[in-house]
Amino acid sequence: MDFQLKDKTVLVTASSSGIGRAVAEAFVQESCNVAICARSKDQLIKTADEIKKSSGIEPLWCVCDINTTKDINATIDVVNKNFGHIDILVNNCGGPVAGIFENLNDEDWQSAFEQVLLSVVRFSRGILPMMKERRWGRIINITSVAVKQPLENLMLSNSLRNAVIGFAKTLSNEAGKFNVTVNNVAPGYTLTKRLYELSINKSKLTGESHEHTLAEMAKEVPLVRLARPDEIASAVVYLASEQAGYITGNTIQVDGGLYKGVY
């Protein structure tokens, strides 16, 4: 299927590894102009080189701490200078610190707020005006199955990722008349460094190995396996396509059926 994305410019945040990297690679395969960003310069260079080796196309990379307005604005400026504008924004971030309510202090909450919610607000604020001017745009936020079904020991993620859903739904109502869609993708258990770290944390509580913990997670999923990052990326690319032009304000779960609710 031709998603009609050739030559569109895409910025994927927190994209040097995991789901973010898989999303960037998927857009490269669609012949888009792709920009990636993350905090680690060395990891960004490594990722860009590996993508170039596999695809023949090197993505633009920018060092960016998504918790800071200065870095976000600088990243947007670099992408605009190189490609002229940004058509598609994929807001991705790592997960905030794990923990139950009693073990989280104000600093933990503030950091999670900056990372999960304000990064989405700031990137969207910087890019939406050019989308409205061009009367075409896609904003896609990577959230978590936790927006439907809170996950154990993830108080911060469960709280702030739901705030992203509320923001996106409201923004979709405001931006629709400019032919800009705003949607969310909610991954389930996905084979990333984040899931590996969560499995280690859980193993410390249960006394089991992290391999056992990951196997138990897979058993919770009707498909009886964990997701690959590229499976999440496929949903993101579809939401960016012309074929998905009438989908906005929605959250699409890519969780293998992990969420057990009807609505």
Question: What brief labels describe this structure?
Answer:
single chain, 263 residues, alpha/beta, Rossmann fold, 7-stranded parallel beta sheet, 8 helices
Write the layout of secondary structure elements.
Elements: E1 9-12, H1 18-29, E2 33-38, H2 41-55, E3 60-63, H3 69-83, E4 88-91, H4 106-134, E5 137-142, H5 155-175, E6 180-187, H6 193-206, H7 210-220, H8 229-240, E7 251-254
Parallel strand pairs: 1-2, 1-4, 2-3, 4-5, 5-6, 6-7
Major β-sheet, in short? 7 strands, parallel
Specify the CATH homologous superfamily.
Answer: NAD(P)-binding Rossmann-like Domain
Shape: globular
Mean pLDDT: 95
Please provide the count of β strands. 7
How are the strands ordered across the major sheet? 3-2-1-4-5-6-7
Find the structural class using helix and strand composition. Answer: alpha/beta
The SSE string, one letter per element, is EHEHEHEHEHEHHHE
Task: State the oligomer.
Answer: single chain
CATH domain fold name: Rossmann fold
Segments where pLDDT lies below 50 for 5+ residues? none
Top CATH class = Alpha Beta
Share of β-strand residues: 5-15%
Description:
By secondary structure, this protein is α/β, with parallel strands linked by helices. It has a single domain (9-189, 227-254), classed as Rossmann fold (3-Layer(aba) Sandwich), CATH 3.40.50.720. Helices cover 49% and strands 14% of the residues. It contains 8 helices and 7 strands; from the N terminus they run E-H-E-H-E-H-E-H-E-H-E-H-H-H-E. The chain has helices spanning 18-29, 41-55, 69-83, 106-134, 155-175, 193-206, 210-220, 229-240; strands spanning 9-12, 33-38, 60-63, 88-91, 137-142, 180-187, 251-254. It has a 7-stranded parallel sheet with strand order 3-2-1-4-5-6-7, with helices on both faces. It is globular. It starts with 8 loop residues before the first strand and ends in a 9-residue tail after the last strand.
